[in-house]
């Protein structure tokens, strides 16, 4: 007997479900796309247990009659493609006919739909097998309930994250579609509590305020390249407000939320060196392109696209963003760029020399304010324990000597390493020292940020960020970790929430999240380059650096110092 045989339908559907349904947010995404394709003007979502226990999506779209409802749960059954030619110019969000049967294969699934008020059909499916079909008096539209997702695929269920993390993924998914469709009302609630409410709005700017919050929306710059074969429009953030991670970058192609390398690279090019490496501006970017030159059928979850003329898309996005930023005086216009002029010398603390030299003394006075946060108290700094500071170069690098030779120390990277080590040690011991704010701050968070904070609330508390809900998605910030007291508390919280969201998306373990949060906090609190230090400040920083275990790099892995040994110096001068 041969070894090859045909798989039965239940196994085929479970395999297909593995490609389409990654987590509860994938279910919500597929159902939202169906609702939007059905012409819905209102979509209500209810979830329990982060969507693992229950998902309910109700729309007021066109609905289906009995025959279409029965056919809709068959694989590759769709109303969105008529023939091969239609695949070359897909105008709908869904088109493969795999979503409903794939979801039904890994859950207890109920479809309720009606094309006319009062004339509805209800279909109940268990593990991909039809359990019952019945008539029902229903209003026009479609409701789908997904109960106990992956209950029959325990291996997949085991890899899902906590309820809070899965809820955050769902909020991000609904937020993206709400940004793309301001003409549709969206609501999302969990266990009776509203997580997101976005009433219908005629203009995109209002929807951006609903989703990102008024404060974040006010910092955005509108742009539009105008009509053409390719049109890019939307809103982009100011370079000064760029954050770590891409959680605030929303890219759409013909209304479809995508992860697109061409557009992402064009955004980086548009901002140039106005944004530090590893930080990303907020962008809500809508690309409208003729369907005949874009292929949306390149990914099982329809999250990627491919262009026939990617250079045209890249240039449209890059020039549109660049010109919008230049109109605000943040970057030069593309047509004003000239060959780079010779690099200007950074401002030095000395008008005649880039060095700030000091005479070492037996003792040192109190450290300057920037250093007090890393010192145990206001007592004079101890004598050198590992290296002696000689000078500061360009207000950025400390020149020093130790028993092995000469050192050049990056003051920002070194201070970042010192803060990180002390902060992490306190966090691991659950003994983080906090700094109470003189006046508590109220922070308006986006729904995504708020849910992310809820899912990681205990971790933020352990790190010294003492917050409590203050109505809606607003929180009150009462205290910050003492090690980060010099940083802007509001900007720091927003950035850390972006880090947490990125960690959730990349399935980072809790320990990895803590490392990431502490690293960001240390970076923001550390003294910067182009910051003059006196002899006391330089020596105190070197003393602190020589007390940490890993003094050669910052927490990001960037070098904090390099050494020129005595042997290397003498060989350079041919003394040996």
Alpha-carbon distance between the two ends? 81 Å
Main pleated sheet: 8 strands, mixed
Query: Which whole number gives the mean pLDDT?
Result: 85
Sheet with the most strands: spatial strand order: 5-4-3-6-2-1-7-8
Counted up, domains total 4
Spans of at least 5 consecutive residues whose pLDDT stays below 50 are 337-351, 360-382
Record field, number of beta strands: 25
In CATH, the architecture of the largest domain is 2-Layer Sandwich
Our count of helices gives: 18
Shape descriptor reads elongated
CATH topology of the largest domain: Heat Shock Protein 90
Going by CATH, the homologous superfamily of the largest domain would be Histidine kinase-like ATPase, C-terminal domain
Helical percentage? 25-40%
CATH class of the largest domain: Alpha Beta
Radius of gyration: 29 Å
